[in-house]
Amino acid sequence: MQAIFQLSTRNYDKEIILVKKALEELEDTCKVKNGYDISGQFTKAGWTFFNVKLSSEMFSIIEKSGMMDGALGFGIAEQFKNFLGHYLESKGSEVRIKKIDY
Length: 102
Prior knowledge:
By secondary structure, the chain is an alpha+beta fold. It has one domain: 2-Layer Sandwich (Alpha-Beta Plaits), CATH 3.30.70. The chain contains 3 helices and 4 strands; from the N terminus they run E-H-E-E-H-H-E. Strands 2-3-1-4 form a 4-stranded antiparallel sheet. Strand 2 and strand 3 form a beta hairpin. The longest helix is centred in the N-terminal third of the chain and has 19 residues. The protein starts with a strand and ends with a strand.
């Protein structure tokens, strides 16, 4: 299963660097190669939106490893969204995140 999230920001140039660095660190933690893909950038009303798709392997490792312990939400999809949002925030990112597909 792959999880797709839409991230939004008013400062794309700064945030894309932070998001990529954070996701690369998450790949290293999970010991996964090609664990994510960033695509679908578009701008609307001063906001830039882009999608982050996590590989099924990376998703599975995060889910089973206990990394999501303490992530609140109704169901695994919302818990994973909250985990990823908090993870990115802990790495200095200020993007907003919403679940597109799970």
